[in-house]
Structures are given as C-alpha cells and as structure tokens.
Amino acid sequence: MSPQSLTFFPSDVVILVTGLVGSGRSTFINAFLQESSQKMRVGDPGSLSTCTKKVDCAVIDLSTSSRCKRDYRLVLVDTPGFNDCDRSDSSVLHDITTWLQKSFPEGGHRGGVIYLHDISADRIQAAADSDLQALDFAFNSERASKRLVIATTKWNCINNAEANRRHDILKDHWKTLSASSTIHKFNETADAWNIISDFLPQLERGSPISMSRELSGMKEKKDKGERSHGSKREVAFRSLARLFSRFLTNA
C-alpha cells in the first residue's frame, strides 16, 4: 500500500522485514494475514531477482489478535531484497528510506528490523562470515542490536538434520558477534507469531524519530562508508541501524 492510502498512528510499531533476495520476506509477512486478506506476492523459488519491486506494508491490529494481544497496531514493511542481480543495495536502501519518509514525515514511531536468512542457501559458512559480520558492524551498539532480530527461513527446502546443523552454525557465529540480538527459526505461522511476541517488548520502549535528521545523517554516513569500506551491503545495514536508533529510549 502507498503511504497516501494509509493512516498511521503514533502508537504504531513499525518493523522492517529485510534480507537477501529469496529469503522469504513476503512469506513471513503473509503468516500474519488472515485468509481473506490480500497477500504479499511471493517470488519463484531460486530466482536471483526480487519479486518485491517496491516497498509495501501490512497493518495488523493487535488489539483483536488472539496470539499476541496489544493495544496498538503492528506495521510490517515488506522491502525489496538485497543482493538483487537487477539493482544495487543502495537503490534498495533509497526506496526504503523514501517510503519511510513519506509514511512517517513527523516521526514519533517505534520500530526495529527483522533480517531473514535462507537456511537452505549454499555455502552457509560464507554467508555467516560475510552477512552476519556486516550486520554486526552495522548494529554494533547495544541499543541498536536490541532492535534487530535474525530469523532463519526455508526449513522445508532441506532435511531437518542439515537445517538444524546450519542453524546452530549461525547461532554460534552470531553469539560471538553480538550478545544482544537473537536468532529465531521461522518455518510456520506459529513461529512468526512467536518471533513477534518475543521482539515487541524490546520495541515498546520507544521514543520519537526525527526523520529528516536521520535521513540526512544516513546520507552522510553512506557517502563516507562507501569511500572507506569495501562492503556496500555493510553500508546499507548501517544506514538501517542508524535510521532506527532514534526509536530507542534511555539515550
């Protein structure tokens, strides 16, 4: 949905659902939608190009939820995937920040990031070494890391023993990188709700965001980062972390 077609409230909790192309971002969001609701489009298995071409969102009224009852709404933002063969990570980041700026021009919202990792992807060790280190560098403060959750997906694509082995590898890697963020398993609807139920208490203690200030700071850090670091994805992750850092309390 476009920002113009929705009305957002200061009490809304906003979560960006991010990850590489094919990690299952739209599938994760669909787990929260009722059968009668319009679903997010899901891409073809193995595609190197994201099916999510533009930022979209789903709004879940938690006051009517039997799984995770709260007195506010949850806004799950479906984002284009990183590592797309057709576009750069910086282009994806630009679309995300533009959508956020149009949707929440006055700030005042609480939020975080869920990063999805395809457990069935080949070369799991290399993925753990690169993407997790980039994430850790981006969300390296204790305040920011509490606003990040990692969830493994695509458990039905490989045998359970191998999936558990890979999940343990990721947990061990992430444990050495960050003590504040956690890795969850997403395989079915109940898992998605469990992830959100565990994550929300961290996000409920939020303070307003100054969107114009954050976007300006993100551009400055992005410009410096691309000159001094080799990983453009690292720059994108760091920009996301900076964007949400203003949601934190006890600054």
UniProtKB/TrEMBL annotation:
Domain of life: Eukaryota
Annotated TM spans: none
Residue span(s) of domain G: 15-92
InterPro entries with a match to the protein in the record: GTP-bd (IPR006073), P-loop_NTPase (IPR027417)
Region (Disordered): 210-233
Pfam families: MMR_HSR1 (PF01926)
Molecular-function GO terms, alphabetical: GTP binding
Biased composition, class Basic and acidic residues, residue ranges: 216-233
Protein name listed in UniProt: G domain-containing protein
